[in-house]
Design goal:
The chain is globular. Helix 7 packs across helix 8. The termini are far apart. The chain is of the alpha+beta class and about 375 residues long. It contains 10 helices and 19 strands. Helix content is about 20%, strand content about 25%. The protein binds 2-acetamido-2-deoxy-beta-D-glucopyranose (6 copies). One 2-acetamido-2-deoxy-beta-D-glucopyranose binds next to loops. It comes from Cryomyces antarcticus. Pfam families: GH16_XgeA.
């Protein structure tokens, strides 16, 4: 079972998540990539690099649906305050590290970005150097479909406070049960239905013995690496490759799944994945406290507690609000996100009856949203 703390991600999320998920799907000019659901021949369809990165995301700047002590800001605010930046090799997503935001007032400024383009199936490669961690933080790199929970949620990187193991999980509409396994063993929770178990979803924490440094301070200490997520009609698998052990085929730009080895988690079971997961946007955010980090903060003995605050959440908010200097490590540094897909069956049959070049327009539409 998941730690009891996870059950605090209550079903109140179910209504409020509708807001960002609708926004995620209404971007004029964005491209939908509906890849094939099985096979091994992956081609690059979308490529997020430092030079195009921020033009391929929209900035969610409304209230936090998970009650964090956070203010998500728009692009102009993020750029002018230095919360986002790019260099030749990477982009950064940071938070405010200079001002106090005491309990009762507005939360600490941060960003929550949602990709314009959407995807069904694919191999998602996130190459990152650094991720947020520490007391009060709740970072996430995830995929989300429209009309939550009808089209599902795939949480690739998620954790809170001083966690050292990454939590990978799926959240879905009813009748999706996962029995898969991987290096982390049997999944800790098998029912992905958001209306069950307080929306803790189905998934598992990474095994830090099998795959050390897969989250937070540990990940940052080794210069990160590549998170790989393969989503097919039959399974959703998660890997983390530390910087010094990235498969050569990934570095070469032609990922060969047979060289990836045992995944950290393999979600596969009596779930029709295609009827529960579709049309996902990529989301990256750094939240503070809220439904997950806030409610578990009080049980994290390494985090400063306010004995008179009255609750775990208040203690978290007091630390986040009053200590800007403690959030200098709460940033993402990302080199790239690459999305590979197998040509969809319809496109493949078209290519057989005409020429192989009919496959190409699908891939080349990657540039549409730039
Ligand atoms: C889930 O399965 C149950 C039992 O088979 C069925 O009654 C119900 O209609 C299903 N719900 C959905 C949303 O498919
Ligand atoms: C993928 O890797 C396997 C195992 O090393 C190898 O046999 C196969 O030829 C590779 N496929 C490609 C397309 O390079
Ligand atoms: C996914 O997007 C495509 C293209 O816009 C659309 O045709 C399809 O109905 C969408 N599917 C879902 C489940 O939203
Ligand atoms: C601790 O909580 C008390 C009571 O809510 C509050 O007055 C005080 O400012 C908090 N202390 C810190 C350091 O945030
Ligand atoms: C917060 O920062 C101070 C120094 O500014 C440091 O002494 C303290 O250990 C930090 N606390 C946490 C929980 O990171
Ligand atoms: C792999 O897919 C690409 C693009 O869809 C296609 O051009 C190529 O012929 C395919 N290769 C094989 C071996 O099927």
């Amino acid at each position: 079972m998941l730690p009891s703390s996870l059950f605090s991600r209550t079903s109140t999320l179910s209504l409020l998540f509708l807001v960002p998920s609708i926004l995620a799907q209404s971007i004029p000019g964005a491209t939908f990539y509906g890849g094939g659901g099985s096979g091994t021949n992956y081609s690059l369809v979308d490529n997020y690099t430092p030079s195009n990165f921020f033009s391929k995301f929209n900035f969610y700047s409304s209230y936090d649906p998970t009650y964090g002590h956070v203010q998500y800001v728009d692009y102009n605010t993020a750029a002018s305050n230095g919360y986002i930046s790019s260099s030749a090799n990477s982009v950064r997503l940071m938070v405010d590290t200079t001002n106090k935001y005491p309990r009762g007032g507005k939360g600490r400024p941060s960003v929550r970005i949602i990709s314009d383009n959407t995807y069904t199936h694919g191999l998602f490669l996130l190459d990152l150097n650094h991720m947020p961690f520490g007391c009060g933080t709740w970072p996430a790199f995830w995929l989300l479909g429209p009309n939550w929970p009808s089209n599902g949620e795939i949480d690739i990187i998620e954790g809170v406070n001083t966690n050292t193991a990454n939590l990978m999980s799926l959240h879905s509409s009813p009748n999706c049960t996962i029995a898969g396994s991987g290096q982390s063993g049997t999944l800790e929770q098998s029912n992905c239905d958001t209306s069950q178990n307080g929306n803790s979803g189905c998934g598992t924490k990474a095994d830090t013995t099998a795959v050390p440094n897969n989250y937070g301070a540990g990940l940052n200490s080794i210069g990160g690496g590549v998170y790989a997520t393969e989503w097919t009609s039959n399974y959703i698998k998660f890997w983390f490759f530390p910087r010094t052990a990235i498969p050569a085929s990934i570095t070469a730009g032609t990922p060969n799944l047979t060289e990836f080895g045992l995944p950290m988690a393999n979600a596969q079971g009596s779930c029709n994945l295609d009827s529960h997961f579709a049309n996902h946007s990529i989301i990256i955010n750094t939240d503070f406290c809220g439904a997950y980090a806030g409610n578990t903060y009080g049980s994290d003995t390494d985090c400063p507690q306010n004995a008179t605050a009255g609750s775990s959440l208040n203690s978290c908010v007091d630390f986040v609000g009053n200590n800007p200097q403690n959030f200098t490590q709460a940033y993402w540094s990302i080199n790239s996100i690459k999305v590979f897909q197998i040509a969809a069956a319809a496109v493949l049959s078209a290519s057989m009856s005409s020429s192989i070049s009919s496959v190409v327009p699908v891939a080349s539409s990657a540039s549409v949203s730039d």
